[in-house]
Write a structure and sequence with these properties.
Blueprint: E1 3-5, H1 7-14, H2 20-28, E2 34-36, H3 38-53, H4 59-75, E3 78-80, H5 85-103, H6 107-118, E4 123-125, H7 129-137, E5 141-143
Parallel strand pairs: 1-2, 1-4, 2-3, 4-5
Length: about 140
């Protein structure tokens, strides 16, 4: 099974926040690797840095979180995949036309869902409510 985890989930896996227990429980119950794209890499890295900027953690913790993510890549927990961006943007446009006026999704939310669809993910993991709604609306199984 292909699982796409958005950056909110991945950040919660590597930093301690309110969603960390749920993220860790999900990981314990799945043997499927999580798709990892350049978009997620950027967003997760930026999420770590924003936590430093906001005074939520010291830089040493952000660096340790990035090292931990690298270990997940080396172990196979995260599986690097290249997105066909022209296809993903076409899918994203269709998702926007059909769902944004109803769900209120942001462009980046849609782009994550479109990337998941373009990579033929079956399951979408996120803590973002609108992103979860749009993922479900386009036929992805949503967890946790």
């Amino acid at each position: 099974m292909s699982v796409y985890a958005d950056s909110s989930f991945l950040v919660s896996c590597h930093l301690t926040d309110v969603n960390t227990p749920t993220a860790k429980a999900y990981l314990l119950n799945t043997s499927s690797p999580l798709i990892f794209t350049a978009l997620q890499a950027l967003e997760v890295r930026n999420g770590f840095q924003l936590s430093v900027f906001r005074g939520l953690l010291p830089m040493t913790n952000a660096k340790a979180a990035w090292v931990s993510l690298g270990q997940d890549l080396r172990s196979g927990r995260l599986l690097k995949m290249a997105v066909n961006w022209p296809l993903a943007f076409r899918i994203a446009s269709q998702i926007s036309d059909r769902h944004s006026s109803i769900i209120g999704t942001r462009s980046l939310d849609i782009l994550h869902v479109a990337a998941a669809k373009s990579l033929r993910a079956v399951e979408f993991v996120s803590f973002d409510g609108r992103q979860r709604k749009v993922a479900a609306a386009v036929g992805l199984r949503v967890a946790p």
